[in-house]
Write a structure and sequence with these properties.
heterodimer; A: TIM Barrel; 8-stranded parallel barrel; 41% helix; globular; B: alpha/beta; Rossmann fold; 8-stranded mixed sheet; 9 helices
């Protein structure tokens, strides 16, 4: 794969830091007396369609607002049969956004490739979104979470193989003239010839989210894609993942571009630190205690035994184990405070981690519309401009702390 | 009484596998369950008093290689055939527990001449509407122990519950304790994730089994409903069904002597 295919691997220095607003579209109305998992077996009788009607539209409004506030893009993602995130089809959300916005990037982070059969469906829908939006799609590709292998009854032992084959099909259909034949172990397609083709040529920017598996990081580095660190771990875990990514790129013979790294983190801004915590904390705990349980199940064969052992090492710092607000703050699980505090904390951590994409989760758990909107507005007006100034184009993000104007 | 099992390595087409062996006499092949049972089993040691007990460890379990070459039950049966050939067992008695019982049945429907007598202990492998097998994957070990053992004071049931308590607390479980369980479950999932613990074609092939067959059911098995043992017994022409009290799914661990006697009786 040549570097010329990937516009963000700039030869004349680094591009400007990019800011994204990420939405999970959580279900905010689990009954108080339900204490089971939010995944796989969480009874769908608990879903109130009237709430659904209200929140889908509200959440879309929150994403659309990001363009007006100056964000570079928005992110949606895919999960199934759960209360944590109500986007079994993020592509539907992205197509709405493609029509209702005009400037910013729309990142689908991502489609869980092994769940699509045939995976040409992903190439088709992504190309549709890219055409409708005029070339604003960022194409994310994921293996899918452990719970999805229960929800789809797809053998977890095939997760990585299916991902690899599906990726190869999508990449080829975007870069080679069709029709061609693809006969793999899991997909046997005699006529691969997807219409439409994406506006961005040869293909949209590709993002791969991950939790630190070396195999995934090497795949991303080899293909010069971007690696999005999945949140809800201690900030040290991100540092380890990004270091792994940096080293993997060096092994491929190049230095990582900051735009190949993304840090996804919950952010909440209010007028003062005290106000921010008071307004936010309960909603954060709803997310941690009601929506996370069940997200971390790892079906047999989903990861290699070696990777599992590595993931277990980080598991102790997974947000599900959080008990106190001090742990949340000190571990960087959420960046919460006044505009000044949030600017300072983000700046400090961006310098330490070195990503060129900041993916903020602004709505989380039960955080209501007014507080979400206010937080987004404060971030757009008082945090983002300062961070843009502090991380200008042409300079690496990683480095010694600099004063933030 | 009781001969402890020795361990050998057998080179197969897909890799080297462990084979546990003890005793002399007519050969009895034991196919283990998803728990990877075998070593130190009183049932096998008892049987080895007057039989040659041969217990191959399936790829992915213990130190047996080759799981990457196995995608489904078809591959498993070809591997078993290879093992029987290399051990020069033309037509041994075959005993299988749970997953092993399913494998034994799949072998016997395809190659009836390679099985002289068959004992299926709490076998999985069938799908019976209204009598679904419970979830094996991702369940708390304490819950599983309740399905697997009639007597919760059995040392293995105790250990499973204890691991659950440790996992829920901040106690760190040594990875070496987890590794064999993770490996066994991953290997089982390759064969049994989808379709879940069954082969939709097996039921209508059972008529092919010619060996005298004993289906043994643990009366307290709450993991596999009783209808499964009945379906095997009625689908195989020369089959009997025996229910053993005081045993659940892992019957050979709870009633080793009784099962050994049943196996001997079925050998005729």
């Amino acid at each position: 794969m040549s570097a010329t295919l990937d516009p963000w691997v700039a030869s004349e220095g680094f591009a400007e830091m990019r800011f994204f607003s990420f939405h999970l579209m959580p279900y905010p109305a689990l009954p108080d007396d339900y204490d089971g998992p939010a995944w796989v077996t969480c009874p769908n009788s608990l879903f109130d369609p009237a709430v659904g009607n209200q929140i889908y539209n509200r959440y879309l409004d929150e994403l659309i607002l990001a363009e007006e506030l100056g964000f570079d893009g928005v992110c949606v993602n895919e999960h199934h049969q759960n209360a944590y995130g109500l986007m079994p089809s993020p592509n539907l959300m992205a197509s709405v956004l493609a029509r209702q916005t005009s400037r910013m990037k729309i990142a689908v982070v991502g489609n869980a490739l092994p769940l699509y059969d045939p995976p040409t469906r992903v190439a088709e829908e992504f190309a549709m979104i890219d055409c409708i939006s005029g070339g604003r799609l960022i194409a994310g590709m994921v293996v899918g979470g452990g719970p999805e292998y229960y929800s789809f009854s797809i053998n977890p032992a095939h997760a990585r193989e299916r991902f690899q084959e599906a990726h190869d099909i999508i990449k080829r259909v975007w870069t080679e003239p069709g029709p061609f034949e693809f006969i793999g172990k899991h997909y046997k397609l005699r006529y691969v010839n997807s219409w439409p083709r994406p506006v961005q040529q040869p293909h949209p920017e590709i993002w791969i989210p991950g939790v630190g598996s070396l195999e995934t990081i090497e795949f991303v580095a080899r293909n010069r894609y971007a690696y999005m660190g999945i949140p809800y771990f201690h900030i040290d875990v991100f540092e380890r993942m990004f270091t792994m990514m940096r080293e993997a790129c060096q092994r491929q013979g190049y230095e990582v571009d900051p735009l190949q790294l993304g840090w996804l983190v919950p952010i909440f801004v209010a007028e003062t630190d005290a106000e921010a915590r008071r307004q936010y904390e309960d909603h954060f705990w709803y997310f941690v205690r009601r929506l996370l349980p069940g997200i971390n199940i790892s079906p047999p064969g989903y990861t290699s035994i070696r990777s599992f052992e590595n993931i277990l090492k980080g598991a102790k710092t997974f947000a599900l184990n959080l008990k106190t607000w001090d742990e949340v703050r000190d571990g960087g699980y959420a960046i919460v405070g006044s505009p000044e505090t949030v600017t300072e904390l983000l700046s400090e951590n961006l310098r330490r981690l070195g990503p060129g994409n900041l993916l903020g989760l602004f709505q989380l758990g039960t955080l209501p519309a007014d507080l979400t909107r206010r937080s987004l507005e404060l971030f757009g007006a008082e945090v983002m401009p300062k961070l843009r100034a502090a991380f200008p184009a042409g300079q690496p993000v990683l480095g010694a702390p600099a004063a933030v104007a | 009484m009781g001969v402890s099992l020795g361990e050998e390595r057998l080179s197969t087409e897909i890799g080297s596998v462990q084979v546990l062996r003890a005793g002399t006499g007519d050969p009895v092949v034991y196919l283990h369950s998803a728990m990877g049972d075998g070593a130190g089993m009183l049932f096998l040691e008892d049987l080895a008093d007057d039989k040659t007990v041969v217990a191959p460890v399936f790829p992915g379990f213990g130190e047996s290689e080759g799981i990457e070459s196995i995608e489904d039950m078809e591959d498993a049966v070809f591997h078993l055939l290879d093992v029987l050939d290399r051990l020069e067992l033309s037509s041994p008695a075959v005993v299988g527990l749970s997953l092993g019982g399913w494998m034994a049945a799949e072998l016997a429907v395809r190659y009836p001449d390679r099985v002289s007598s068959l004992v299926l202990v709490n076998p999985v492998g069938l799908y019976l509407p209204g009598a679904e097998i419970k979830e094996l994957f991702g369940r708390p070990l304490r819950e599983l122990a309740e399905d697997m053992f009639a007597d919760q004071s059995h040392p293995m049931a105790q250990m499973m519950s204890q691991l659950d308590v440790m996992a829920a607390s901040d106690v760190e479980i040594p990875f070496e304790v987890l590794r064999p369980m993770l490996q066994s479950m991953a290997a089982t999932a390759k064969l049994a994730w989808d379709p879940y613990l069954h082969d939709p074609k097996l039921a209508r092939r059972l008529y092919r089994v010619s060996a005298p067959t004993l289906v043994v059911r643990g009366a307290a098995d709450s993991f596999v409903p009783g209808a499964h043992a009945e379906a095997y017994a009625s689908g195989i022409s020369d089959a009997r069904l025996v229910e053993v009290d005081g045993a659940a799914h892992l019957l050979p661990l709870e009633r080793p002597g009784e099962l050994a006697e049943l196996v001997r009786a079925n050998l005729g």
